[in-house]
Structure to design on (389 residues):
């Protein structure tokens, strides 16, 4: 098969991911749709339809994993049901490979599925993409450590979404597999609405206030309380509103705090949203105050809509946010400094405009059409290597 045929070969790919609004689910889904648009057959295998997989998408199928309940089980073992569905899908859809996103439990589920398929004379390699907390937090916990290390080393190929995450993985685990860095990408169409979003702004900012936005799963590591603290400092100097998008364990205590402080007309808890483009295009600045972040996909989405970002300087964030160009970075918990940075931009329209342009330019480095071919080339390298073995 000549190189052009190899490059243009259309594959049957099983994608395993969490179907959630979070970054790894978004990347897995948008990658699958992008691959389908290039003629590959894509099979999503997970417990619910991926949040971003709406409507009919050509060349895409969804296979639901439904663990059967049984009185003996305290909870039905999702891993076993997942492995069975992977084996079934590989056999009957003639999969060329699995691409699993987030090591827990997907990497070892892939290993078991691969072993079962081998007993039927089928070789379906597993590529694992590490996304962040599967290494830095959950994966590092003793209850998952050995399984994550084994899953990484048994995968046919491993990628990470940032150089930081590759370095962290090599530092944390005894890794015998080479790791390829393939950065996250801007989900297509994220900012189609930028040109037509003036009116929505007035819904939240009737007196032309500036809008700060934060999007996350409201878990401890996101430090959303710091986002509110920054807002409370900024509002003393400039007319602003704060939009909080997403949901999670920290939302209720934070919402109660805002009610006690009488801030409910200035801080809007909008919950989970599938289409965040509408919010991003009316926002003036994004805040992300995490104590760890392998990449920060929400930053790329904001920048693609021309929204500068004020962030912490942890993890892979410096690979996305350029301090003094696309926004600013400060240490974890430095809410005074972050508030200063917000005010510096909010009070200088010319500088804000310049940062907005530079943010959009930086996002252009991470478009799907630049990143997707890297995954295709990686698939081909893994498949060709196995043919030679
Ligand atoms: O941010 C989260 O906690 C969700 C998590 C996930 O698994 O979706 O996000 C991780 O993967 C995203 C996509 O690769 C990255 O952009 C996030 O930075 C990463 N989260 C962390 O590392 C905390």
């Amino acid at each position: 098969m000549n190189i052009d045929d190899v490059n243009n070969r259309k594959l049957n790919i099983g994608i395993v991911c969490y179907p959630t609004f979070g970054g790894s689910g978004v990347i897995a889904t948008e990658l699958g749709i992008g691959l389908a648009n290039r003629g590959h057959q894509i099979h999503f295998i997970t417990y619910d339809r991926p949040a971003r997989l709406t409507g009919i998408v050509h060349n895409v199928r969804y296979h639901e994993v439904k663990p059967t309940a049984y009185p003996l089980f305290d909870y039905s073992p999702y891993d076993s049901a997942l492995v069975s569905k992977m084996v079934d899908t590989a056999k009957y859809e003639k999969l060329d490979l699995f691409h699993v996103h987030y090591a827990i439990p997907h990497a070892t589920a892939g290993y078991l599925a691969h072993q079962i398929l081998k007993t039927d004379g089928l070789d379906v390699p597993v590529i694992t993409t590490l996304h962040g907390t599967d290494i830095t937090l959950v994966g590092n916990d003793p209850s998952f450590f050995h399984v994550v290390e084994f899953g990484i080393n048994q995968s046919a190929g491993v990628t990470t979404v940032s150089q930081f995450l590759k370095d962290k993985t090599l530092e944390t685990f005894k890794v015998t597999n080479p790791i390829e860095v393939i950065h996250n990408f801007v989900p297509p169409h994220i900012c189609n609405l930028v040109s037509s979003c003036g009116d929505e702004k007035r819904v939240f900012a009737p007196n032309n206030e500036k809008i700060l936005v934060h999007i996350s799963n409201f878990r401890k590591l996101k430090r959303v309380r710091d986002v509110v603290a920054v807002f409370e400092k900024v509002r003393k100097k400039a007319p602003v509103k704060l939009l909080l998008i997403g949901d999670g364990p920290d939302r209720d205590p934070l919402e109660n705090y805002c009610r006690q402080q009488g801030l409910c007309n200035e801080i809007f808890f909008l919950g989970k949203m599938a289409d965040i483009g509408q919010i991003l295009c009316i926002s003036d600045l994004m805040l992300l105050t995490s104590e760890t972040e392998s990449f920060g996909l929400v930053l790329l989405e904001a920048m693609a809509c021309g929204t500068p970002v004020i962030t912490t300087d942890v993890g892979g964030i410096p690979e996305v946010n350029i301090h003094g160009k696309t926004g600013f970075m400060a240490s974890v918990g430095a809410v005074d400094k972050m508030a200063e940075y917000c005010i510096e931009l909010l009070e200088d329209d010319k500088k804000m405009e310049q940062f907005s342009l530079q943010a959009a330019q930086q996002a252009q480095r991470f478009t799907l059409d630049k990143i997707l071919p890297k995954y295709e080339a990686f698939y081909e390298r893994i498949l060709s290597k196995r043919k030679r073995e």
